[in-house]
Structures are given as structure tokens and as C-alpha cells.
Amino acid sequence: DFDLKTNEKGNLKIGEADAVDLAERFGTPLYVIDENRIRDNYKRLYNAFKDYYPNFKMFYACKANTNLAVMKILENEGSGIDAVSPGEIYTSLLAGFEPERILYTGNNVTDEELKFAVESGVRLNLDSISQLKRLSKIPEAKGMEISFRVNPMVGAGHHDHCITGGPLSKFGIKEEEAVEVYKMAIELGFKPVGIHSHIGSGILDPEPFMLAVRTLMDTAGKVHKEAGVEFDFIDFGGGIGIPYTPEESKLDINDFAEKIVDLYKAKLEEYDLGTPTMCIEPGRYLVGDASVLLTKVNTIKQSYRKFAGVDAGFNTLLRPTMYGSYHHIVSASTPLAESTQTIDIAGDVCESGDLFARERPMPEIEEGDILAILNAGAYAFSMASQYNSRPKPAEVLVNNGETDVIRERETFADLFNKQNVPVRLLK
Ligand code: LLP
Hints:
This protein has two domains: about 5-35 and about 290-415, Lyase, Ornithine Decarboxylase, Chain A, domain 1 (Beta Barrel); about 35-285, TIM Barrel (Alpha-Beta Barrel), CATH 3.20.20. The chain is about 30% helix and about 25% strand. The protein has helices spanning about 20-25, 35-50, 70-75, 85-95, 110-120, 130-135, 180-185, 205-225, 255-270, 285, 320-325; strands spanning about 5, 10-15, 15-20, 30-35, 55-60, 80-85, 100-105, 125, 145-150, 175, 190-195, 235, 275-280, 290-300, 305-310, 330, 340-345, 355-360, 370-375, 395-400, 400-405. Helix 2 (about 35-50) runs parallel beside helix 9 (about 255-270), helix 7 packs across helix 8 and helix 8 (about 205-225) packs parallel to helix 9 (about 255-270). Ligand LLP binds near residues 240, 284 and 379. It is an enzyme of class 4 (lyase). Its cofactor is pyridoxal 5'-phosphate. Keywords: Amino-acid biosynthesis, Decarboxylase, Lyase, Lysine biosynthesis, Pyridoxal phosphate.
């Protein structure tokens, strides 16, 4: 279960703040982030690996949540960053991450983006031979340390869209081509120092990770032997899932870390690879369960089905519509109450797919109630849009009951940002 905390009024607590009270003070829809939960998640995962293999680093996959305050919290904790675009590099630098702490893993990167990354001084993890060749034409990139993303032919994830390894994936270089590509990089004057893979997202089973570690290490072994590469780091990407349904169980992180590290060490020894830094790139695990989305029920409607209509939609939280993802939903004023009905919970976007839940067991809900959509910290605000001309919601950070607005609610004016109407149309 989700270990929901309530206060003396019986209202849901987030980071010691009353969810109903937050909705009233800051309006809805509202993302509420618990700072300590992010810090705890970071420490738990970091320590689990660090205890078994001290030469270990984590790069937060900031696509999960790019709010500057969230990034600053992880910067304080000592994390690095996995960035996928110039915008994410820029945001990371602004949040105080030194360039050496940022690993840029782009996909289908333009020359301009490559140049930007080189000039920023971040580490480059290349996704294709095309990228390597184009990088070699940038004078400032001469002699740079680089790494490659390899497709280890293993993929896993909570949805087809979130599987990033295997024969259908657009990411990385072919495993069989790795030796050749590393040799090519050396010939072009680069210094390859790393190897990387990321097999997918939302994985709660250790098995696919183990397979990926095995394959990537075998590839690293070959590249070391046949291309003479000395690895400074080996990066297994992100993907660790979190439970979204009450029935799912958490991955046992200590057991997981021990298994991975045992295999890693055995392979280092097998191929005489020394003790390169072991890296992972968690996104969802660090921020996913640290946030809830508060939304207000404005309509109870008995049509052919029973609906609770709320003031958030897939413009606010896309995952249910995009991946059919389950997000647990509780009433913020009766979070522990027994279910007495099943009801569809629908957003306010004018599309049929705009549903947070179908036939969800819920207690009584009335118009005006606040619902808390749980586990809305990862790929939630970062995938929000202004579709239907709805300004994006605010984000509030809670720290032991203290609140800070870390992103103001957008206004109508934000809907027109950067638009121009040609004068000739103003007749
Ligand atoms: N590293 C790389 C290279 C990635 O592409 C990703 C995620 C991660 C790390 C972090 O994965 P995580 O630890 O968060 O699973 N929008 C989808 C998830 C897309 C993930 C894309 N890549 C969702 O809402 O489930």
C-alpha cells in the first residue's frame, strides 16, 4: 500500500502539509512535491549501491521532472544529470550542476545541438555513427572524452513506448558493431572512456536489468580487448520502476543492488576491466512517488455511466491517456475510507480519452471534493501541455509543513507567449 498519512482532521498529509488546505490556498489543479521524499529516495538508492561498490555515481534523468527546485534538491544531494536536449543541459547548468556532472545522451541530435553540448563542456554519450562523424567535424571537440550508448538487445518497460532496447529500438549503436565504432572513434582522435545502455522505463523485475548488465559487460569486455579501450565508467541507464497500484510491490533495492554489483564485479574481473565507475540514471525512482496532483471535483454526473469530473486533464497528467497508466486516486478529505462505489474519473479536456480512471472503486465523492492523484512526480508536469488553451498548473514544494510555490500557475497571457498576428489580419 501507499503508506498514506493523515492529520487530526483525517485529511491527507503531504510532507506534513494538509492536502485540502493546500488546494484551497493555491488552487487546483496543483502539483505538490514532498522535498524529503526526494532526498530519501536519492539516499536509499545511492547507499544501496555505494555499500556494495564504492566507485558509484547516479545521474538523475531530469526529463522526469525539470523543475529547477527539484533539480536543486538533487544537486544538493550530490547527484549528476542525464540530459537529453540542449534545454535540459541549460536547465542543469542553471540549477548549479557543473558540466562534468552532466552526461548528454541525445537521440537524433542536430549539428547545432552537438555544438551547444561541446561548448557547454558536458560529457557526451553518442547514439549513432552519424553523430560521431559529425562531432569529429567540430574543431572544439577534438580529442574529447566520449562514450557510446549501445543497444544491448534487451528491452523492458511498463508499455511498448517505454522499451528502449531490442531490435525495434531507435536508440544506440548495434551491439555487434561496438568494437568497430570504438575503433573508429579512436581513429578520429577521440578518447572513448565510457559505455552506456538504457533498456526501458518502469521496470520492477530485476531480471531484464541483469540481462542488460551481462550483455553490456560482455560488449565492454570485447571493446577493451579488441579496441584497447580503458573504461572510466560503465553506465546502465535508468528504468527502476515504482509501484503505481496498491498490489504491486517495490523492488527490493538492497537485494537488487547486490545482485547487479556481484555480476558487475565478476564481469570486470573476467575481462580485466579494472574498477571503472558504475553509473545508473534513475528518473522515476527519485521523484515519482514524491508528488501528488490535487484536482477538484466539479461535476458528479450520472450518464450511461457514473462520472466524477475534475479540473485536471491529460493536459495536466498525460500518462493515463498516453500509456493507459494506472494512478491511484484518493479523496484528500477521506483518504483511508472504504470504497462504496465504482466510478469513472474524467478530466476536463474535450476528448473521450481524457480519463484518469475507469470503474475505479472509490468512497462517496461530492462536488467540491479534492482528489489526490498519487505518484505524479515523474513524467507528469514535464509532459503537461496547454491543450484546450488551459494554462499549466502551479507546483508547490513542501518541506516539513513549510510551503514554497516553485512554479507559478500560468495565466491566459502565457497562452499567447511568442505568438504574432500579422498586421494585415487586424483590419
Ligand atoms: N536514461 C535514459 C537514457 C532514458 O532515456 C531514461 C528515460 C532514463 C534514463 C530514466 O528512466 P527512468 O529511471 O525514469 O525509468 N514518459 C514515460 C517514461 C519515459 C522514459 C524515457 N527515458 C512514462 O511516463 O512512463
